[in-house]
Design goal:
The chain is an all-beta fold and about 475 residues long. Helices cover about 0% and strands about 45% of the residues. The protein binds calcium ion (CA) (4 copies).
Length: about 475
């Protein structure tokens, strides 16, 4: 990782998992940055590429304010930079063509590229307009794939920098102590690298602005009191910055619309009653605005479709029964709409593919057994489809790479031991944290969130037959 200043990767050298956070990274002629992406974080960064051989690496988050300096591209009037299919950026200077591989998942349809003379004889490539890059859950190293966020029972957080299902390196963060719960991650400051939302048992929320495993900034938010629990992060108003979903022990939910680490607006939502647990935020109808998934203690789930702090649609989903737990929301089939990950108390996982509040597909996955806990829906291979992060009761983490409801790959990760808990979008059970921590979810009953558009009750989250049982998620 590289932040600010000036770094030289010399001929024959390599840089690994490169982050350019301001400053200049100089890739000298003949140097390579291995196969991992070269990622800009924030703005004000320059990737200087010497010589005429272009790196094959994917260049992520090339957005307005960042520069690619091609020192070996002799600037001349009439040069150009144009985007080719697959987001290959083609620069032509003095009759010579240079090709750079921009993030193929980024949307450059509202962007314009330009070339200009650099400080020497070379060519600066810049971009203006609107660039949309996909936000990937738990992506602390801005590589376009999920990393794993951990917290130990003693409070110590840690991040595993992942390349797909392979652990590149792990790093411990400063220990805030066991009264601080790591709640969720999201790119709060919209710089391309995930940040961490924490909450103290006294109610105090805090945000760590992260670049890789480095805490680049820290902010404490107003304390709503210990009866309010931060549930997660989601962009409810589609301004590109995640907002905070909270729930009171009374059942009332609230949204803090955030502008980075500042609360722009606080909105208290209708109170569905304390048997309804806010599970998480995800965009079920694909309008770019996060919606809220609820589950009642009797198993029934419901969705509130949101527009900022306004509920624009609500529906109760088919009742799977109280042995089914909504683990979290993620887009398993890559259609831009959040889906629901379930797990039964007997271990059986299931997925509901959603279109708004309609279930358009449902499948039960192989049962790894009740010792395996589904943790969340990160995208480890960066294909835009959620994968499943697991942890065994003995501590072993594992990943199922998913394509819709099909398991296309699986891998076990090193075992950090059972006191370490991965933090993804699943609710955090009280028995998973230190003795000072409180349950993230409230516990008493009232009325339902909304009975409008209620749909018929089913006996299980899937109408399909059970798949074969496997002994472990790596099976
Ligand atoms: Ca960030
Ligand atoms: Ca939505
Ligand atoms: Ca989906
Ligand atoms: Ca994936």
């Amino acid at each position: 990782m590289f932040t600010g200043g000036y770094e030289i990767v010399s001929s024959g050298g390599t840089a690994s998992g490169t982050i350019i956070d301001g400053g200049v990274m100089d890739l000298q002629s003949g140097a390579s940055a291995d196969a991992l992406p070269i990622s800009f974080v924030g703005t004000g960064g320059t990737l200087e590429i010497d010589g005429t051989a272009m790196p094959a690496n994917t260049i992520r988050r090339f957005v307005p304010g960042n520069t690619i300096d091609l020192t070996g591209a002799t600037f001349a009037a009439g040069g150009s930079a144009t985007l080719q299919p697959g987001n290959v950026l083609k620069a032509v200077e003095s009759g010579v063509t240079f090709q750079l591989h921009l993030d193929p998942r980024a949307d450059y349809s509202g962007a314009t590229f330009a070339v200009a003379k650099d400080s020497g004889t070379g060519t600066n490539v810049s971009v203006s307009g609107v660039v949309r890059t996909p936000e990937v859950r738990n992506d602390f190293y801005a590589g376009g794939t999920s990393d794993v966020l951990w917290q130990n029972a003693d409070g110590l957080p840690a991040i595993w920098n992942m390349n797909g299902t392979s652990l590149i390196e792990g790093a411990g963060l400063p220990n805030p102590g066991p009264s601080w719960q790591v709640v969720a991650s999201g790119d709060v400051n919209a710089d391309g690298a995930a940040d961490i939302l924490l909450q103290n048992t006294d109610g105090l929320p805090a945000i760590w602005e992260m670049v890789g495993s480095v805490i680049a900034g820290a902010a404490v938010l107003p304390n709503p009191g210990p009866s309010w629990h931060a549930i997660g992060l989601g962009d409810f108003n589609a301004d590109g910055k995640p907002d905070i979903l909270l729930q009171n022990t009374s059942g009332a939910a609230a949204i803090w619309e955030m502008n980075g680490t500042s609360i722009a607006t606080g909105i208290v939502l209708p109170n569905p009653g304390p048997t309804w647990h806010a599970i998480g935020a995800g965009d079920f109808n694909g309008d770019g605005k996060a919606d809220i998934l609820w589950q009642n203690t009797d198993g029934e789930a419901a969705i509130w479709e949101m527009n900022g702090g306004s509920i624009v649609g609500a529906a109760v989903l088919p009742k799977p029964g109280s042995s089914w737990h909504a683990i979290g929301v993620g887009d398993f089939n890559g259609d831009g709409k959040a889906d629901i990950l379930w797990q039964n108390t007997d271990g059986l996982p299931a997925i509901w593919e959603m279109n708004g509040t309609s279930i358009i597909g449902a499948a039960v996955l192989p049962n790894p057994g009740s010792n395996w806990h589904a943790i969340g829906t990160s995208d480890f291979n960066g294909d835009g489809k959620a994968d499943i992060l697991w942890q065994n009761a003995d501590g072993i983490p594992a990943i199922w790479e998913m394509n819709g409801t099909s398991i296309i790959g699986s891998a076990a990760l090193p075992n950090p031991g059972p006191t370490w808990h991965p933090k993804d979008d699943g609710p955090i059970p009280s028995d998973k944290m230190g003795s000072n921590a409180t349950a993230q979810q409230p516990a008493l009953y009232q009325s339902s969130p909304d009975t409008a558009n209620a749909v018929p009750t089913l006996s299980s989250p899937s109408s399909t037959s059970l798949a074969l049982h496997l002994s472990a998620p790596t099976g």
